[in-house]
Amino acid sequence: MAANPVQVLSKYTELFGDTFRFYLGGIKEAIVTTNPAVIQHVLKTNADNYQKSEIQVKRMGHFLGKGLLTTHGEPWKTQRRLIQKGFDRKQLEALSAIMQDSLAESLRDFDRQVRVGPVDIYPQLMKMTFAMVARSLFGAKLKDEDIDVVSNTICTVQEFIVRQTLQPYLNPWFEVSGELRRHEEMRARADSVLMEYIKTRRHQAPGNDLLQTLMDARYSDGEGMSDELVLSESMQLLVAGHETSSNALSWLLYLLSSRPDCLERIREEFHSVLGDAPLSFGDVSRLPFTTQVILEALRLYPPFWMVDRMAVADDRVGDVDIPRGSTVIVFVYGAHHAPRYWESPESFDPERFAKANEKLQTPFTHLPFGGGPRGCIGGHYAMLQILMILSDLLRKYDFQLIPGQMIEARPMVILRPKHGIRMTFTQAIARDRHAIIQE
Ligand code: HEM
């Protein structure tokens, strides 16, 4: 289970059906489900009865303080309403320019690397997406060295939290050995770097980034967020947004490396919609096929392979009893691969998401961004980010998977490629598609 929970839960789903109980670590009852009716009930219809799991709130809250990821009830609702504004259409249009500038800078570095030889795309894409999210939050002037400090801290602290969760018996040792303190100090250093930007912004002209949204937000009594709350909300957005899009992009490039037909259609679409121009938010709805491909990649490799909740009071859905205090594991990967809801679930088929096939889909079986009121706040931002990076990479480069490598998914918090994904990138052969078509 610790080595590969996706494999184990998939096997149990096959053996015991779409909803079953087991005892987490032999102690705590958990209900695992891929049943869309149960999922809809837990995530949406009766969402008020379900909180984020204790693990997330307690362990993450220790390092990340209070924020969207670690609060419940009214405080969460209020923050969610205020922060949502940072991800609306108008704000995403404004963020497009910051994102493009950040990408252009990251691509200069990427170009230097790929000229030397093959690269593992996972860390490369992670660097790209992290810089983009960090600059969308703290503005275009966020320095490279500060991005590095914060990014290293988040990666290291996140791994530590996973160790604390998977090996809870080591927690007393972490305290005695000073490991806990070292991680706390690291977090404090990253905090002080970001706090500098927050304090400076209070005396500067407003920016058009997410930091400004957080600072301008007002509660019903007219008060704004304290600097400390702005900091912890920003840190939580960085944590939630740093590894997800890069993950999705890595699997997407991997899938495309063996599908020249799809690649060609995507390039055609970019070419006819964008020409040589950079992509911005207004273009997103004009790229239907590429969007289908991304949704299909997110189905096969959902970055969050599961989401969990804890029942506040006894509940029942259909014939499933959910006692108070039990954990419900929405097995996202299982729902995405269920033969009951997807024909040939293991095959990569973007046509599933074509408009004409919309009616064939069962609600709450495709959940890359979760569902209900606590679904991903950054979903539209993520789609914009993925399309922006993909459009630049595919117009600039041809790429090939290095043969003979083992590609395997490692389900930690995120479904990462276990051994990375190595590829070569060469300058794309200039294609004048209109000329080719006319010929
Ligand atoms: C492909 C990219 C992404 C995927 C697949 C993804 C997936 C998810 C999922 C499944 C959840 C729900 C978790 C749950 O119900 O427990 C979630 C929540 C969240 N996501 Fe994303 N996410 C992505 C990108 C982003 C980005 C770019 C940001 C921010 C810049 C972000 C910020 C958040 C936040 C703050 C939450 C918590 C919302 C709340 O509890 O109110 N995500 N995400």
TrEMBL record:
Cofactor: heme
MF-aspect GO terms: heme binding; iron ion binding; monooxygenase activity; oxidoreductase activity, acting on paired donors, with incorporation or reduction of molecular oxygen
Pfam families referenced in this protein's UniProt entry, alphabetically: p450
Binding positions for heme per the UniProt entry: 376
Protein name per the record: Cytochrome P450
Keyword Chloroplast on entry: no
Entries under PANTHER family matching the protein: BIFUNCTIONAL ALBAFLAVENONE MONOOXYGENASE_TERPENE SYNTHASE, CYTOCHROME P450 FAMILY 4
